[in-house]
Amino acid sequence: MTREEAVADQRLARHRSRQTAKKSFDEMxxxxxxxxxxxxxxxxxxxxxxxxGCIHCADNCPENVRPDHEDAIVFIxxxxxxxxxSFETRKSFIVxxxxxxxxxxxxxxPVEAIVMVPRPGWEVVEDKPVLVEESQEA
Length: 138
Ligand code: SF4
Ligand code: SF4
Known about the structure:
The strands form 3 sheets. This protein has a two-stranded antiparallel ribbon with strand order 1-4. It has a two-stranded antiparallel sheet with strand order 2-3. It has a two-stranded antiparallel sheet with strand order 5-6. The relative contact order is 0.20. It has 2 domains: 1-35; 37-137, 2-Layer Sandwich (Alpha-Beta Plaits), CATH 3.30.70.20. It is 34% helix and 28% strand. The protein is built from 4 helices and 6 strands, in the order H-E-H-H-E-E-H-E-E-E. A hairpin with a 2-residue loop joins strand 5 and strand 6 (128-131). The site of one iron/sulfur cluster has 13 residues, from helix 2.
């Protein structure tokens, strides 16, 4: 095999690998969109222990990217402890009142650190937020 042929082979393999990765991501994304309830009755919740501070959620949050809106996702530094040392790690934090319940952050989080939970007075029934009248505050 000539050098040119080897390079062409390598390019083709890389192209196929990218296509496979894209297909996997699309599949994953479709499943996640189905998995998370969305709407004003739910709010994002971050499992702090799982969050690795990559900021993908904030980059994809519509409230964070709109300049005229207050951020729905902010980051806080948390101290973690091991037997012989402590260290600071960045964690995602949801500002409940600014979250519109779109679930984009939950879909995009690479480690599934975000879930959508019902707001007070709401329940999630068959993956949809449902208002529970009797639980509403006067
Ligand atoms: S995308 Fe997930 S892991 Fe990354 S900062 Fe947000 S919650 Fe944490
Ligand atoms: S659910 Fe939507 S609005 Fe709320 S924090 Fe996540 S991306 Fe932002």
